[in-house]
Amino acid sequence: MTEFWLISAPGEKTCQQTWDKMMLATTRTNNLSTNHKFNIPDLKVGTLDVLVGLSDELAKLDSFVESVVKKVAQYMADVLEDSRDKVQENLLANGVDLVTYITRFQWDMAKYPIKQSLKNISEIVSKQVTQIDNDLKARASAYNNLKGNLQNLERKNAGSLLTRSLADIVKKEDFVLDSEYLITMLVVVPKTNYADWQKTYETLSEMVVPRSTNLLFEDHESGLFSVTLFRKAIDDFRLKARENKFMVRDFQYNEEEMKADKEEMTRLSTDKKKQFGPLVRWLKVNFSEAFIAWIHIKALRVFVESVLRYGLPVNFQAMLLQPNKKNMKKLREVLYDLYKHLDSSAASIIDQSAMDIPGLNLSQQEYYPYVYYKIDCNLLDFK
């Protein structure tokens, strides 16, 4: 299970007692969840007005930061293309896997100094993650353009003989070049019609050079034949060929153009390889930064919500539960029984997530008698 429940309850005589009680209810006898203390430092409380406003702002910031974390993770999966199993090992926070980071969470004092007000800390996160989001857009756009152009060229060099590029199939000696009167044309003939082609090509129009056809290339459906004729017969030959299910390709042998195409392909391929390494490194670093910021936002939310609900002085225990998937419903019931005394109004709305009560942000978030936020580490949506 990569889902965690970050909850808090007020300190009994001590916060340790709150922790022991919860442990007793959820793990000692029935193994409903694996639990960890979640350490939140002594943050500056500020005024009630500020806390109420901040509660809404943090909810929005939480959604935004989560969306950026998911975008970076998903783009990492897109960039790593064929090695998607490697994605997970690149999605680390502070050099460790996400579960380890969350369960051993320590506030980063250097990035988010606790001497600052809560509002300032949330603004530091907001600026930092907005920057990551903007950088991701720019980098993704540049890399996707490159990848798209390369794929278009690769597509040109694959597929059916009716549409694919012929540059890597034909050679100079296959053509009559620099003749005022003669021209070599390329014709796609279905395999089932080879015999018809050999019988009829010389008489499809006037002025076809006898015995001038050669099979240059074939795929599983058709073959590419060359045929030489007089220039003035081109239109008539093209029309008669089509009536007989032979398709004339528009192709002029031009060495310069073909060389330019090959060079463009090589250049794009080299550029893509050059950009790949630095891009993956950037994604790794910034995934870690965004994920760490996200968990700090969760910590801020628990702090603000706990002070608003349980009052001052600050006295609550934040706890991280990793539910046992089979027992999630049971765990909810046990937590409800444990904490229902905290809020009588919660009794009637324990599972109605869309109830709208003024001052409570219930439409986006289930409401329970204890402070609760979900953290889901399953960030990838593999198609």
UniProtKB/TrEMBL annotation:
Annotated GO biological processes are:
proton transmembrane transport
Keywords from the UniProt entry? Acetylation, Hydrogen ion transport, Ion transport, Transport
Question: What Pfam families is this protein classified in?
Answer: V-ATPase_C
GO cellular component terms, alphabetically, are: membrane
Keyword hit for Ion transport: yes
Q: What job does the chain carry out?
A: Subunit of the V1 complex of vacuolar(H+)-ATPase (V-ATPase), a multisubunit enzyme composed of a peripheral complex (V1) that hydrolyzes ATP and a membrane integral complex (V0) that translocates protons. V-ATPase is responsible for acidifying and maintaining the pH of intracellular compartments and in some cell types, is targeted to the plasma membrane, where it is responsible for acidifying the extracellular environment. Subunit C is necessary for the assembly of the catalytic sector of the enzyme and is likely to have a specific function in its catalytic activity.
Annotated family? Belongs to the V-ATPase C subunit family.
Describe its assembly: V-ATPase is a heteromultimeric enzyme made up of two complexes: the ATP-hydrolytic V1 complex and the proton translocation V0 complex. The V1 complex consists of three catalytic AB heterodimers that form a heterohexamer, three peripheral stalks each consisting of EG heterodimers, one central rotor including subunits D and F, and the regulatory subunits C and H. The proton translocation complex V0 consists of the proton transport subunit a, a ring of proteolipid subunits c9c'', rotary subunit d, subunits e and f, and two accessory subunits.
Could you identify this protein by its name?
Answer: V-type proton ATPase subunit C
Its source organism is Coilia grayii
